[in-house]
Amino acid sequence: MKKLLKQALAACAAVLLSAGISQAADYNLKLQTYYPATTLQIAKGFADNVKAMSNGRVDIQIFSGGELVGSGNILKSVKTGMIDIGHGMGHHFAEMKTGTLESGLPMAWMDATEAQILYKHRGLKEIFEKQYENAGVVYLGPTRASAYQLLTKTPVSSLDELRKLKIRAVGAAAKMLTNLGVSCVNLPVEDIYMALSTGQIDGVLYGNAFEYEETKYYEVARYINTTPLIDPITDTLIINKKLWDSFPDDIKAIFRAAADCAVNDYYFFTANESMRVIGTTFKDKTTSFSAEDQKEILQAAIKVWDEEAKRSPEFAKGVEILKQFAKEKGRL
């Protein structure tokens, strides 16, 4: 009987191995994003790529916005090791002097290609990498989210109409809107739906049409202005330094490669999906700002650039990079 039992166990083991069942991971890690549970594509794609590239040696569990810590505490929690990996926004982190520059100053770049050039080839990425090093974590790189378009409970096609409303906006975009005479409220992502439904706010600057459909915000705010105020907003991937230092070189290379893969995937995915959503969910409920209003928005944005440049020498260096690029593009 013992011999038969051993043979049976050996047979079961062979079947499991032939079916592709892998051994337990060498690293079981936690990643929290600031995104709600309905829009976890960036975090999941990154985690899936790390797992595949490492042949199952690294397994990353995903937590959505607010599940473990508040969005503003992601950096602090990654530093202390409460969270292994963070997917957040620079302007959420009080520790980051260049946070609003990293996330995207309004009108600083007009598409993902421009953002990539500025980050990778004009020096922005090096600035942020050093800042996160000073904050005690390792910067894996940026991820592009989407264009930022206004979602409101009533149609808005002019700045005069917008000035009558209270808008949830954060970072430099909120400062630009404030300079334009718009009342802004800073709320965490997890509170937006309730704030819209109760009338605490009249609109939100969070993403594009697809994201407003995914988050269900369209249920309580039906109108979208398709003029982008930032295109795209930029997030960040960071990892605990002690954990990073413990990795062998091949695992570090895998994390770097997975971060590079994650840069633009979500941006192009949402841009494509937004075209569908605008033709369905938001059919006949879209507006845009006039060319005259857009010029006023740009001037308000440039004032924010100059104000933000006073934060630190690093920020000022970044703004100079943006201005030089804008001049080369003929916008300044």
From TrEMBL:
Domain of life: Bacteria
A Pfam family matched in the record: DctP
Signal sequence segment: 1-24
Keyword terms: Signal
Gene3D superfamilies cross-referenced by the UniProt entry: Bacterial extracellular solute-binding protein, family 7 (3.40.190.170)
InterPro entries in the cross-refs: DctP_fam, TRAP_DctP_sf
NCBIfam families: TRAP_S1
Record's protein name: TRAP transporter substrate-binding protein DctP
Source organism per UniProt: Taurinivorans muris
